Amino acid sequence: MMNPNIIQKKFGNLNYYVDINNKSFIVTNQDISVEEIKNIILHRGKTFPFLLFVGKEIEPNLKEQESLQFLPIKRRHAEFYYRLKDDPNTYRVAIKVNLSAEFLPVWIERITSLKELDQIKLKKYFDTIIFAPNLNRLEVLQLRMNFPKSTLIKAGNYIPEEIRDPKELEKHRITDVVNKLGVEFISKNPVYSARYYLRKLDFNQLYELPIKIVCTESDIEVIMTFLDIVIKNEHKNKELEINKDNLILLKKYYEFILYIIKKDYNKLEEFYDQSKEFLLQEPINSYLFDFLKSYKNLYRNRNIPKEEEIQLWEIETLIKLQEKKYS
Fold it and tell me: Which tens digit of pLDDT belongs to each residue from 232-264?
């Protein structure tokens, strides 16, 4: 019996084996056993795109109403067509292909409104999202927060909606966005969450943020930039002035995390030498250990290489030794 997450499709003499969960596939003229296929796809497979259509006005041209479509490849492109309600034109999504095959598997899903986002099990995989023209700016922003790495395209044209720059939120005050759409709206985006909690000076949430949400190097660097701006402007706000020391400690905390994510262990050693007092403060010390634990589990969805595991153990040990030395 074939693995339910692996779909087999035959075109002529060629077999297409598609692994949905790993977003990869292979093409072969052989019939491969269930035992072998998973490992082969994992090591030799090519990735394939996931598309999402958002809006009841969009009518994708799905064959047999199946999510997995096999699109013919012509002149290094695969094309998928769709229509808009009450619009006589047919529109297409052109996908550039760099492989020698006759067909490209493409996973396609459709939701009629943003209320259905939570129903999408594989949403982390979507490469391109085509949304209805009547979505407002906040709804598009909500898509960007849920799919930070996806390309957003307004249906009926090919203009990507780029909302990657945090400055985009200046058009909508972060507190106004949250008041309208709820805290869940920003809960999966560390940069927007940090801005919101920084406005509220909610330090507990700011410390827990990288423990609960996976942050990239870029996320941490942007958050540290925000902290720099707030610290420099503390004299303009009495509440900020009172919390200046807390803001400085918070920035050091994020600096620690940045070096861990970057695996810059030389910088970490310098950080230890210059920040011993910082490492002793409570509850920061506890947050550091919680982050290291989270990093091993949340940030590394695989087995950690032995060398990296030793480095992390040394970091924990060094913090403990410094705590004893300076207590």
Answer: 876 667 888 888 888 988 998 999 889 888 888
Number of Cβ within a 10 Å radius of residue 193? 25
| pLDDT tens readout for residues 161-187 | 444 444 444 444 555 555 555 555 566
User: Tokens 């949304």 identify what position?
Assistant: 131
Domain ranges of the chain: 48-164, 167-326
Residue 251 token pair = 């920035």
Q: State how far the Cα of 210 lies from the Cα of 197, in Å rounded to an integer.
A: 13
Dig out the tokens for 18 from the structure.
């598609």
Mean pLDDT of 62-74: 85
- Residues with Cβ within 8 Å of 162's Cβ and at least 6 positions away in sequence, in order, are 152
Separation CA 119–CA 107 (nearest Å)? 16
- Rounded CA gap, 285 and 26, in Å? 48
Give the predicted TM-score (pTM) of the model.
Answer: 0.54
Burial group, residue 288, by CB count within 10 angstroms (0-12, 13-18, 19+):
buried
Burial of 204 (0-12, 13-18, 19+ CB in 10 A): exposed
Owner of token pair 């596939």? 25
